Amino acid sequence: MGNMPLEPRIKYQEELDLGFGRSVVAHPGAEDLYRCIQCGTCSSTCPLVTYMEHTPRRIIAMTRAGLKNDVLKSNTIWLCSSCYSCTVACPKQIKITDVMYTLKREAIRSGVHADMPIPVLAGEFIKSVARTGRSNEMRIITATWLKTKPFELFKQAWMGLRLWLKGRLSFGLHRMSGDRRQIRKLLVAAGEQNLGPRGG
Amino acid sequence: MNIPLSTKKDEVRIGVYVCHCGMNIAGKVHIDALRDFAKTLPGVTISRDFKFMCSDSGQELLADDIKKHGVNRVVVASCSPLLHEGTFRGALVKAGLNPFFYQMANIREHVAWVTNDRDLATEKAKALIAGAVRRAARALALEKKRVNVQKDILIVGGGIAGIHAALNLAESGKHVYLVEREPTIGGHMAQFDKTFPTLDCAACILTPKMSAVKNHPNITLWTYSEVEEVSGFSGNFKVRVRRNPRYIKEELCVGCNECIDACVFKKGKTLDEFNVGLSQRKPIYSPFPQATPALVVIDPNSCLELMKGKCKKSCVDACERAAIDFEQQARIENIDVGAIILSTGFKTFDPTRIPEYGYGKYNNVYTTLEVERLVNASGPTQGELVLRDGSRPKSAAVIHCVGSRDRRYNPHCSSVCCMASLKIAHLIKERTGADVFNFYIDMRTPLKGYEEFYDQVLSEGVQFIRGRPAEVTDWALTPSEEGKLVVRVEDTLLGTPRRIPVDMVVLAVGLEAQADAEAVQRVFNISCSRDGFFLERHPKLGPVSTFSDGIFLAGACQGPKDIPATVAQAGAAAAEALCMVDKGYVEIEPNTAWINADECSGCKTCIPLCPFRAISRDEQRKVAVINEALCKGCGTCVGACPSGAAQQNLFTNEQIYEEIEGVLSYV
Amino acid sequence: MHYLYYPGCSLKATGRPYEESLLAVMRELGVDVEELADWSCCGATTYMGVDENQAFALAARNLALAERNCSDGCANLMAPCNACYLVLNKAKHYVAEYPEVRERVTGALKSIDLNYRGDVAVRHPLDIITNDIGLEAVGKHVKRPLTGLKVACYYGCQIVRPYSTFDNQYNPTSMDELLRALGAEVVEWPLKTRCCGGALTGTVPNTGQRLSYFLLKEARRAGASLVATCCPLCQHNLECYQDEIEHDFAEHGQPAVAYFTQLMGLAMGLRPAELGLQRMLTPVQRVALQATGSES
Predict the structure, then answer these.
(1) φ, ψ at B507 (rounded to 5°)
(2) Is residue B482 within 8 angstroms of chain C, CB to CB?
(3) Taking a C-beta distance cutoff of 8 angstroms, is the pair A48, A85 a contact?
(4) Would you tell me the crossing angle of helices C242-249 and C232-240 to the nearest 10 degrees?
(5) What is the pLDDT of residues B605-625, one digit of tens each?
(6) Boundary (domain end) residue, out of A87, A110, A133
(7) What angle do CA A101, A107, A109 make, to 5 degrees?
(8) Are residues A151 and A64 part of one domain?
(9) What is the rounded distance in angstroms from the CA atom of residue A79 to the CA atom of residue C211?
(10) Domain assignment of residue A6, yes or no
(11) pLDDT tens, C16-28?
């Protein structure tokens, strides 16, 4: 049997980040978040919900309540495949997929996220785009696995080899044809501008 | 109408009263400054401030000044005319002064409630008061006109609302026309099996009232009829009703139904409207056994004789009273009524608009209304809960909020579906012993006995899952799901997604305005609210009247509601209609326009512009003439008239210019 | 009609057969297609999870490039990859609907001397083929009808959600109609628009692959020997993990997975090499030709 430590679960207002909900709502696409009536349609239509530690509906409730860390650390946001089923099914027309994107960005920005390969993949993706103007699938995936689970590389090697033999995988670098510095200039110009608060 | 003379300026003695309205106004403007400012204006003899002008003491203050100090024009700087213009005009009448010598300056909604800057507010209030004072100096004595009111009342729609209102009015001695579009009265209530929360049999409580309507000497019941046109005005409506041909001589038919049995169609081929399409009927039919009036009707869209002229007409042979008449024509009835009550009811949301729920795709997905017919003893399955594939359900799902609370379809809550869902769940369980699951977002059971009913259904073992299902599908993931309808939902109280296989799914469809609500609205010249239902005069204090005087609303046509609320509203509508008709006259606000015939050039510009069709042309004198009773004082003709011949009482050019001058001179 | 062609990064790599067959079919149909010069990555779903301004700017760059090609209102940008199609359309919508997005995107594009008007139309080849070219015209080019081939049409998510301009959101039929016009027997199945798992098949295999498994299983249960797709990621997911799926779910005899343009090419009598059929990991060519009784 042993001694199971009993942790108190009560939440006091001081430990909640009450501005978190407002900061999410400030982003284009997430503005209707407060309208949620917690009906759960989003969760029930989500094809990945069975693997999520918190359903999409619950993530929205937690976001509004201010459980910032729990939300950002959940695997839910990374298991979202952007299929938009929830956005289309929501009776309040809340763009839940965009809410998930907003949470992904916040998780990456703050460095608080679940231990999953996708944030790492995202990092490799944007590096590829900045450098070449294209996303080089082969290189991105390889870099991701090298940094997270090198063993996966072996598992996927056979498929990689077959694709390479069929001419569908290149170890070479795809680049955009024009001046690649444009991309970096564009990204810097877009990234520099501040996203001011909207309403809320 | 005589040309009103303008008042000579030196006869005018204006009293200005600045109301504090508690802290509403006083907290936002400098009252003293306003009072003192008003004293300086031309024609003002008295200027006061008071905490609540609308109170008895405030009105007494007015009366005192009028009687003792000879005040003969009154300006009150307070709230909105919509609220208290009537109050203050009444105070003037009590003090012996013509009520139209009263002018209001709105310094609450237009000043105190729109800014936090006290100085700015005071300046604006001063300008408004200056304008009001100068206008009051030009006020003219006017009289409200009285027009006699017709004694009869028209009720459109013969559901429970129309029936209840008709009986009330008939009992009071008034003559009522009850016009119903379907061949029978009873409306949706007649389709229900039981009513919540008592589970009374719907037909048992409704049919006595239907019968009373049929037999009441004061009610003229016209079924299978529709209102085509309404003209006239409050208290004097002229209505044209089209009575559609049943092809049956009503005075001869006794409702024996031999003709129906004899019809060449051995089996019905037309979807039965009363059974919501779950069964078929013949072209000659009676909607349901207790249909009132108990007459047969022939449908011209499916009867061979009426469509093609080729039928052996076995119905005619079977009728011993020779009541069938294929030559029957529609009849037009023209009636004059004093008041009209609209009780045209609702329609249910069409769930094919939500493809995820599989209605129309899967056999065993029903609406709550369809299940009412299934469990009803005179329904398509004689009260046996048998599904379309012939089986009996061992498990059932009831989904709440279908088409309601949804911005894509109807944002409103339909009010009755939670209770209806509980009722259906209870009925299914009672009749079949099946496992029943109700899927809800919130449980709305507010009224008398409703929460207790929820408690009862809970204790019967119906399972409640808080979650709005995303989908009803036949795609099975486990062996136990094969051949069933699977409901995918998140059980939000448990926080987990679930899949529940059932034999039968019932969709609690929401209530919507009738499909032709917009067309009906135009016939009666009323408004609809954003959700499509008819608009009441005031959401709190005017639930049965409309902005068109003399037209009242009762029942679900004004908004989704259950039977007790419908009956209550019908009673209220009947009372307000009765009030109008019993009073015997209506008073018309003298803000009507009139045409100075000497200045009218007969250009006819105004005639087509009038939204109320109040202007006509006197062919002899070749001038325009305004029907005062129809005129609503909108001012369109006045603004359009090129020669200034059209003028408006309460808004003469002089009065308007003076008010503008007053505001500008201060600003 | 002149179409600008936006391949997207996938069509130059794993989606190469899609590009090959699409361009071959368009050539055969006499459609004027020109690859958008100097195109860059649209950002796909990944970039939006990192920085929304940069993501919109990346997508909008390609829209602006397309517009630069044509005067007002005539730019038609064909985006065969469903993800690119969605991302480009979403950028269009958000720049139009959110002033702050418009401001940032305009500012970012200005820094590289580009100007976005907002009148470029982003089209999917299914849309172009069924609506602009028309099935009747396609039918005229059919030399070897695919009679006997039972196909399940898989649309995926992003061409019907959240925007569905050219087909029904719940039950799209454009690909079904197209393949029927080619003579194939299209089966009815319930998962036409259910997610294939997207990037998750690679990154979180047990989740994504399960979704692909459902698709393959139901397609086969509906009687299909081949699944037709219109998105490189969907095609990759359904094709490349069949071994793992067979192993994890004991599911055998999986359908072949092809691009709908490859089927078009076969029916139009084009050479298999032109259609990238030799690059497939499932026996598309064999299945198609066997079913139509024309073993080559």
Answers:
(1) -100, 120
(2) no
(3) no
(4) 50
(5) 999 999 888 899 999 999 999
(6) A110
(7) 100
(8) no
(9) 12
(10) no
(11) 999 999 999 999 9
DSSP state of B220: E
Q: With left for phi above 0 and alpha for psi between -120 and 50, is residue B96 left, alpha or beta?
A: left
- Give the residue from B627, B514, B529, B544 showing the smallest Cα distance to B339: B544
Same domain, B301 and B378: no
Angle (CA) B428-B433-B435 rounded to 5° is 80
Residue numbers of the domain that contains A92: 13-110
Band of the pLDDT at B632, cuts 50, 70, 90?
Answer: confident
Q: Which chain C residue is nearest to residue A128, measuring alpha carbons? A: C41
Q: Is B357 on the interface with C (CB under 8 A)?
A: no
Strand, coil or helix: what is B420?
helix
Question: Which residue type occupies B53?
Answer: M
Find the CATH number of the domain harbouring B44: 3.40.50
- Are B382 and B480 contained in the same domain? yes
Residues 45-64 of B with CB under 8 A from C: none
Q: What CA–CA distance (Å, rounded) separates C245 from B36?
A: 90
Residue type, B27: G
How many angstroms separate the CA atoms of B166 and C72, rounded? Answer: 65
- pLDDT at residue number B2: 38
Contacts of B473 in chain C (CB under 8 A): 190
Q: For residues A168 and B359, what is the distance between their CA atoms, to the nearest angstrom?
A: 45
- A12 with A82: CB under 8 angstroms? no
Token pair for residue A184? 């970096």
**From residue B116, how far is each of B24, B112, B120 by CA, in Å?**
12, 8, 8
Domain final residue pick, A75, A110, A145: A110
In this prediction the pTM is: 0.88
Burial class of B615 by CB neighbour count within 10 A (0 to 12, 13 to 18, 19+): buried
Q: Are A139 and A126 in contact (CB under 8 A)?
A: no
**Count of beta carbons in the 10 Å neighbourhood of residue B2:** 5
Domain with B84, as residue range(s), is 9-144+656-666
pLDDT of A197 higher than 50: no
Subunit contact B475:C171, Cβ cutoff 8 A: no
Tokens of C36: 């958008």
- Shared domain for A99 and A132, answered yes or no, is no
Q: Can you tell me the distance from the alpha carbon of B201 to that of B194, in angstroms, rounded to the nearest whole number?
A: 4
Cβ of B494 under 8 Å from any chain A Cβ? Answer: no
Q: Check CB contact under 8 Å for A169 and C198.
A: no
In a domain, A184, yes or no: yes
* Torsion angle defined by CA atoms of residues B72, B73, B74 and B80, in that order, rounded to the nearest 10 degrees: 140
* Identity of the residue numbered B606: C
Shortest distance between the Cα of A100 and any Cα of chain B, in A, equals: 18
CA nearest B107: which of B21, B44, B15?
Answer: B21
Q: What does chain A come to in residues?
A: 200
Looking at the structure of chain B, the number of domains it has is 4
| Interface contact flag, C108 A162, Cβ < 8 Å | no
Give DSSP secondary structure letters for C226-259.
Answer: EEEES-HHHHHHHHHTHHHHHHHH---SPPEEEE
Give the per-residue pLDDT at C1. 77
Q: How far is B279 from chain C (nearest CA, A)?
A: 29
Q: Which two tokens stand for residue A164?
A: 């390479």
Domain at C140-291: CATH code: 3.40.50.11810
Residue C39 has which token pair?
């195109």
Do A32 and A89 fall into the same domain?
A: yes
Q: Does B384 share its domain with B459?
A: yes
What is the distance between the alpha carbons of residues A39 and B440, in angstroms, rounded to a whole number? 8
- Contact assessment for residue A54 and residue A74, using Cβ atoms and an 8 Å cutoff: yes
Beta bridge partners of B233: B236
Here the ipTM equals 0.93
Nearest-Cα residue of chain B relative to residue A45: B470
pLDDT value of residue A196: 35
> Is C36-123 a CATH 1.20.1440.230 domain?
no
Q: Residues A24, A93: one domain?
A: yes
Q: Which two tokens stand for residue A37?
A: 């009536």
Strand partners, B502: B485
